[in-house]
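From the pipeline queue, job 12 of 40. The input is one protein chain; the requested action is below.

Action: predict structure.
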Amino acid sequence: MNHRTNTRARLLSGGAIGVLAALAFVGVANAQTAPQEADEVDEIIVTGIRASIQNSIAAKARNTSIVEVITAEDIGKLPDVSIAESLARLPGLTVQRLDGRGQLISIRGLGPDYTTALLNGREQVTTGDNRGVEFDQYPSELLSGVTIYKTPDAQLIGQGLAGTVDLQTIRPLAYGQRALVGNIRYELNDIGALNSGSTDEGVRYSFSYIDQFADDTIGVAIGYAHIQSPYQSERFNAWGYPSAGSGQVIGGVKPYVMSSELERDGFMGTLEFRPNDRFHSTIDGFYSEFQNTQILRGIEFPLAWGGSSGACGTPQVQTPTCRPGPVLSGTTVQNGFVTAGTFSNVKGVLRNDVNTRDSEILSLGWNTVFDATDDWSFMADLSMSRVERTDVVLETYAGTGRDVTGALDTLGFTINNDGVPTFSSRLNYADPNLIRLTSPQGWGGDIIPGGQDGYLNNPTVEDEINAVRLEARHTFAGDGPFTDVRFGVNISEREKSFVNNQFFLGIPGGGSPVVPAAFLLPATQLTYLGLGGVLSFDALGLVNSGFYNRVRNPNADVLSGNWQVTEKVNTGYIQLSIDHMLGSMPLRGNVGLQYVGTDQSSTGFAASGSGASTRSIPVSGGLEYDEFLPATNFILEVAEDTYLRFAAARTLARPRMDDMRASRNFGFDVSRNNATARPDQNSPWSGGGGNPELRPTLANVYDLSFERYFANRTGYVSLAGFYKELETFVFNRNQIFDFTGYPTGGVTPVINQGVVSAPDNGKGGYISGVEFALSTPFEIFHPALEGFGAQFSVSQTSSEITPDGVNTTALPGLSETVANLTVYYENNGWQLRASNRYRSDFLGEVAGFGNGRTLRSVAAENIIDAQIGYEFQSGILEGANVLFQVNNLTDEPFKTFQNGDERQTIDFQQYGRTYLVGVSYRY
C-alpha cells in the first residue's frame, strides 16, 4: 500500500499556527462574553412562517461558520413535503429531480458526491451505490431543523468539500414544554393514474410527542411519520441521434408511462437525562423503512439503429429467415436535424417493466457531556448507522413474433419544439392476440436460444458506519483572545458492499405465447405520443408465478460488478474559539487543525469473457494516506448588526465508492501475445474497472461574506463570494496495469502489463461564485404591509477543471445560475406562501443502460409551488391548522439532451401537479 503526507497541507497548517500566535499577542482589549457554541443551532420552535424565518436568521447570525439554516414552523411542520425541496430554496443550493421528486442536493456547484450528510452531527450511510444521500429517506415531519455548513471548522466531523448538511431532530429538554402534534394530508396527482392497476391518490400522516419529567431532568421525544405517495410521469426516451444523409435522425425510442408509489414509515426517538448542570446524556434513534414501486409500460422502437436480423439479401425484404432493417423516407430537415419522416420495417418491443426498491435505515447515537469543573468539560459520543437495500429492476418483452418472425410496422413521426416526437402507426399494439410474450429483436440470443424474453436485475447494497468520538474542552480565564480550546478524536469504520445479481428470462421451449388471462390488464394509453393503447399485464406477478426460466447472467461484466469497500478513518482535531476586540470592533471565530488518517481497502473479482468461457479471480487492493486540514473562521462586527466574515480551509472529498472498487473486467488477446507487445501498445492485456488506490479530491477554499441584519433581525441582506482551488480531481483515463497472476486460458503471456481504463487522480482547477440573499418583512416599508414578506437569493458559479491538463471537464451538478424567490403572508391565522426556484442547464446523474450511472446534460427548469393555510387561534379548534398546497404548479418538465443541442432530446418527462390538503393539531 502507498502512504503519503501532503507538503502543502503542512505549510497551510503552519500558517494556521502562525495566525494563532499572532492573535495570542494582540491583547487589544478585554475579551467579550463567550459566544454560544457553533454547533448549538437548535431553536425553541415557534409556530408560524415568520417565526421560522426569524429563528433561521438568528441561527445563521450566531454561527461562527458560514451557514444556511432551516427551522420548522412547528413540530412536524417543515415548509415542504420533501426536506430536499426545503434545502433547494437556500442560497447556493439546488436539487435534482428524479422521477419528479427532489432527491440529490448540489451545494455551490458541486454535486452529491462532494456533500456529506449528518444526523445530529453524525455521518450517515446512504441508500444509493455511493456517498450521495437521497434525502427523501428522511421524513421532514420528524426533523426540527437543518444546518448547512458552507465552510467547515476543525471540530466538524465528516465535512464535505462542497458543504455539510446536518439534519437535526428535536431535543425535548431544550424544547422545554409538552407538545402533542398530529397531522394528516391527502394528496392527488392531476396527471391521473397512467398505468392499469395504479393510483393517483395518496396519504401522509405523522404523530409527535414531547415531554419533560422529574423536574425537567428527563426529556422524551417520540415521532412517527407515514407516507403513501403516488407519482406519475409521461416519458419519452431516445437512444441517440446518428447522422443519416442530410441530418441527425433519431436512432431509436423508448416511450413509457410510469406510475409509482412510495411508501415510507419513519420512527424517531430521543431520551435525555440532565440531573444537574454538569451532566447531560442523550440517546437518540432513527429508523426508516422505505418501499418504492414503479410500473413502466410502453414500446421500444429500434429505428435508424435498428438493423436487420437473419439471412438477408439485397434488397432486404421480409422472409421466414430475414427481418429487414428500418428504412427512412419522406424526411423533413431543418438546420441539419430531421424533424419528420417515416420509418418502414419497424419491429417494436412492448415493455411491461417494474422497478422496486426496499430499504431500511437504522441510526443510533449516545452522547454524554460531563462538566468536570468550571474550566473542563468532557464529551463521549457513540454512533451507528446502517442501511440494507434490495432492488428489483425487471424488464419483460412482447411483440408480434420472435426475432425474424412477426408483422412489421410503418411508423411516421413529427418532432415538436421540445424535441419530442408524435408517432402514427399501423398496428394495434393493444391486441392480445397480435402482441405476444416473446423476444421481438432476438436480443441475448447467445444465452437464450432465439433471444431473451426479459431481464431481471436484483442487486443488494449494505452500508454500515460505526463511530466513537471523544472530546475535551477547556475554558480560558482572563483577557486573552481565546475563550476556549477543544480537542478530540473520532474513530470510524465504514463498510459498503454491492452484490450484483442479474438474470436472463426465457420462455420454456422458446415459443411466443399469449399473455395468460390471469395476468392480463386493461390497455395502457400512450396517446400523448399518438400511439394509442399498448398491451398491459402484471409483469412481476407473471415472473413470480414461475412462467419464465431464470438463467443467471454468467458474463464477466456482471461478475466484476460485485465489490466491497472498507474505510477506517481516524480523525484528530484541535480548535481554539475566539472572542475579542479588533480595535473597536468585536471579533469572533475559531482557528483549528484536523488530522485525517485513512486506511481504505476493497475486494472483488476480475473477470473476462462471456457465457461458459468466463474466467475470474478474486482481487483486492487499498491505500493508506494522511491529510492535515487547517480551518479558520472569523466574524468581524464592523457596525451594529453588520458583519464581515472570512473563512479559509483545506477540505477533502473521498472518491465515489464504486470508483474505489477492486473489481474490473480484463481481456487477453492471444493474437497480440508476441514479441512486438509492449505495455502501452499492442499488449495482449486490456481491461477496465475501479481503482482501490484512489486518493481524495483536495481543495483549498476561501470565503468572504458581508451580512447586514435589520428590523430587529427579522430580515437580512448578504453578499458572499467563494473560491475553491481543487488540487486534484478524479477522472477516467488509460493507465498501465500489472496483470500478473490473471488467467489466460493456459497461454504463457510474453508480458504481464497492459492498458486499463480506470478512475485516477488528475489535476484540478477551480470553482468560484458569488451569492446574494435578501430576506425582508414588508412592514418596514409601510405598516399596512404587516405580515407580508419575501426571501430572494441568486448565485452565479463558474468552474474550470482540467484533469488531464488539457481538456476542461464539466462538473456534475453545477448550474451557472441558481435563483430562488419566496413571497409570503402571515397574519390573523392566515398563512400564504408561493415559491419559485430556478436553475440553469447542468450535468446531471441519471439511470442509464442496465440501471447504471449515466451523466447527461439537463435543461434549465423553473419549479413553482404554492400553499395556503389557516390556524385557528381561539375557541374549541384552537391549535388546529388546515392547509392546501400545490407542488409543480406549472407542470415543469424534466429534460435531458446531448451534444449541446436541445433539439437532440434524450429524456423528456412530464409529472403533472400534486395537490395536497391537510389538517394538523397541536396540543
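Job complete. The chain has six helices and 50 strands.
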